[in-house]
Amino acid sequence: MARNAEESLADLLGGWRSAVETAVPVVAFAGGWLAGDRSIALGAGLAVLGGAGVAAWRLKQGKRPVGTVVSLLVVCLGAIVALRTGRAEDFFLVRVLTNAASALAWAGSILLRWPFLGLVVGTLLGQKGRWRRDPALLRAYQLASWVWVFQYLVRLAVFVPLWWAGQVLWLATAQAVLTWPLVAACVAVSWWVLRRSLPDGHPGIRHPSPAPSAGRPAPEPVEGPVSGS
C-alpha cells in the first residue's frame, strides 16, 4: 500500500516522462554544439527545436499550458544567453539561476508555513487550502519540503563548478542525471518523511483532519530543518 501511495505521489509531481522531456533540449544543445565543431548557433537552434517539439507534444497530451510555456521559455532564454555571451556553458546559466531561485522559494514557503509540497499536492488533489487546517499535515508537509530544498542545493553544488569550468558536455550529462534519478529519490524520501511525520491514526494526505479543539493544542509547525539524532 505504501508503494502504491509513493507511486501516486510521483505521478502527481510529474513522473519520469517529465524528466525525459526536460532533458531533450539539453541533449539537443550538447549534440548540436559537438557535431557543429563547438557551434553555439547550431546547438541553440537544435535546443529550441527540441524544446518546441516537447512543448507541442505536451499540449497534445493535454498538459498544463503554463508549465509548457515556462519550460520552452527557459530553453529559449538559455539559447539567447549563450548566443549573446559566446559561451556555450551559459546555455545552462538560466537553469543554475532557476535552481537557486527554487531553493530560496521552497525554503521561504516552509518558513512562511505555506510549504510548496503541500500547495502542489493539495491543489492536484482538489483540496485547495484544506490541508493547512490540519496542523499535523501542515507540519509534515513542511518537513518533507526540506527534502526538495536539498534537491536544488545538490544540483547547484554540481552545476556551479561545472559552469565555472566551462564543462559543456559534463553540464549536459549532469542535467540528464540530475533530472529523473534525483527527482525519483526526492519523491521517495519526501514521501517517507511525510508519512513518518504524521501521527498514528492520521487518515493520510488525501483526507486532511480538522484542527483539534481548543482543549487539545495543535503541534507547532516547524520553522527549520530538523537535525538528526
UniProtKB/TrEMBL annotation:
Q: Is Ligase among this UniProt entry's keywords?
A: no
Species for this entry? Dactylosporangium fulvum
**Which InterPro entries would you find in this protein's record?**
UCP010219 (IPR016566)
The entry's keywords: Membrane, Transmembrane, Transmembrane helix
Q: What are the boundaries of the region Disordered?
A: 205-229
Q: What is this protein called?
A: DUF3159 domain-containing protein
Bilayer-crossing regions: 12-34, 40-59, 66-83, 103-125, 146-164, 170-194
